[in-house]
């Protein structure tokens, strides 16, 4: 998954997770002073700590230690944070608690996604048959709007990923994302909507891509090919493996896929954080892994790759190089 250049790296996130774990018990003044020193060293430490706190709050929304990160800030900022935390705590009993029961990650609770015609929770894969016979499969944490009229058929992918098998119909079929529109020509394909780009994999037929509002300029992608694009440009064409659609059957089929890519796909089906050390992210993976059984998938990976798995917290997993 693409991350901002301002985001803390794997090592700093790992440090933050271990500090978080140590501070959950009866931490003495010496330990807290050491943590405060680490926290104040760099902006990346503060961002990493805030990231860990956000995830921890999903699993323990009433945890009293959430405000410990503010010990290094001014009293005024402490007061502001405390007031915000009270409001957040109240919200957790209402809509936040409901969203947790539904399985939505807070980072994905955008209004558009929440109000979408079709949406899936973390770990859910849903299949649909539309009125024209078109078949859809929605991946974990995905949201989609459906707009069929007498003139055309339009899907709007708000977040996540959808696999589509189109049916014959006289009306044109379009899929819209934040970066452009796609028009399939009797085909089977998948579309993934990420923060700043769209990924298209074509398995049968072909699909025409139009970037942004450039409705007159189309790039046709044939079967067996993949393209990524943003609103301004297309990336280099690559091969589209049939394994890219295996998630619709509840499995992850890897054929020489990078470990980082495999973990990104597994992570989207589970709550919490799963990180990969950069030095092992490019290890090649082959095999078939169950998406609904993270422990089994990680054990399978650990048995064939030179990696070890660390769990500093129940909801934090870190894959490291084997020593």
- What's the average pLDDT? 84
**CATH architecture annotation name of the largest domain:** Sandwich
> What is the string of helix and strand elements?
HHHHHEEEEEEEEEEEEHEEHEE
Output the CATH class name of the largest domain.
Answer: Mainly Beta
Look up the CATH topology of the largest domain. Jelly Rolls
Q: How helical, in percent, are the residues?
A: 25-40%
Query: Which word captures the global form?
Result: elongated
Question: What is the terminal separation in angstroms?
Answer: 26 Å
Total helices: the number is 7
Strand content: 25-35%
Chain-wise SSE layout:
Blueprint (H helix, E strand, L loop, with lengths): L9 H13 L6 H13 L1 H17 L15 H28 L8 H4 L3 E2 L6 E4 L5 E4 L4 E6 L4 E13 L7 E5 L2 E14 L4 E14 L7 E4 L2 E5 L8 E2 L11 E8 H9 L5 E4 L7 E7 L3 H11 L2 E7 L2 E6 L2
Parallel strand pairs: 5-6, 13-16
Antiparallel strand pairs: 1-4, 2-3, 3-5, 4-5, 5-7, 6-7, 7-8, 8-9, 8-10, 10-11, 12-14, 15-16
Helix pairs in contact: 1-3, 2-3
Task: Please supply descriptive tags for the structure shown above.
Jelly Rolls; eleven-stranded mixed beta sheet; alpha+beta; Phage tail protein beta-alpha-beta fold; 323 residues; disordered N terminus; three-stranded mixed beta sheet
Kindly summarize this structure in a few lines:
It comes from Phytopseudomonas flavescens. With 323 residues, this protein is of the alpha+beta class.
How is this structure best described in words?
GO terms for molecular function: sigma factor antagonist activity. This is Transmembrane sensor. Residues 14-55 form the FecR N-terminal domain. Pfam families: DUF4880, FecR. InterPro entries: FecR (IPR006860), FecR_N (IPR032623), Ferrdict_sens_TM (IPR012373). This protein has 323 residues and is of the alpha+beta class. It has three domains: 8-54, no CATH class; 113-239, Sandwich (Jelly Rolls), CATH 2.60.120.1440; 250-321, Phage tail protein beta-alpha-beta fold. It contains seven helices and 16 strands. Strands 1, 2, 3, 4, 5, 6, 7, 8, 9, 10 and 11 form an eleven-stranded mixed β-sheet that branches. A hairpin with a 2-residue loop joins strand 6 and strand 7 (180-193). Helix 1 (10-22) crosses helix 3 and helix 2 packs across helix 3 (43-59). The longest helix has 28 residues, at 75-102. It is elongated.
């Amino acid at each position: 998954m693409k991350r901002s250049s301002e985001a803390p790296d794997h090592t700093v996130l790992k440090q933050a997770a271990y500090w978080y774990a140590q501070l959950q018990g009866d931490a003495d003044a010496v330990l807290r002073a050491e943590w405060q020193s680490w926290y104040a060293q760099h902006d990346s430490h503060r961002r990493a700590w805030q990231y860990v706190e956000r995830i921890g709050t999903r699993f323990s929304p009433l945890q009293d230690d959430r405000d410990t990160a503010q010990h290094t800030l001014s009293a005024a900022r402490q007061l502001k944070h405390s007031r915000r935390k009270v409001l957040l705590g109240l919200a957790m009993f209402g809509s936040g608690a409901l969203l947790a029961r539904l399985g939505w990650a807070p980072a994905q609770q955008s209004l558009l996604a929440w109000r979408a015609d079709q949406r899936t929770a973390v770990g859910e894969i849903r299949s649909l048959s539309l009125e024209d016979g078109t078949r859809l499969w929605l991946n974990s944490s995905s949201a989609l709007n459906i707009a069929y009229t007498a003139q055309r058929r339009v899907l709007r992918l708000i977040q996540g990923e959808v696999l589509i098998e189109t049916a014959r119909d006289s009306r044109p079929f379009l899929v819209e994302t934040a970066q452009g529109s796609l028009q399939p020509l009797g085909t089977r394909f998948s579309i993934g909507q990420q923060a700043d780009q769209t990924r298209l994999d074509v398995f049968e037929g072909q699909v025409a891509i139009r970037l942004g509002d450039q409705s007159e300029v189309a790039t046709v992608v044939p079967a067996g090919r993949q393209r990524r694009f943003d609103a301004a440009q297309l990336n280099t064409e690559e091969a589209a493996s049939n394994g890219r659609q295996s998630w619709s059957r509840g499995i992850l089929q890897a054929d020489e896929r990078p470990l980082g890519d495999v973990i990104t796909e597994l992570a989207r089906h589970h709550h919490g954080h799963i990180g990969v050390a950069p030095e092992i992210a490019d290890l090649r993976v082959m095999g078939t892994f169950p998406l609904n059984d993270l422990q089994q998938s990680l054990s399978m990976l650990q048995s064939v790759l030179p990696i070890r798995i660390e769990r500093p917290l129940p909801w934090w997993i870190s894959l490291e190089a084997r020593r």
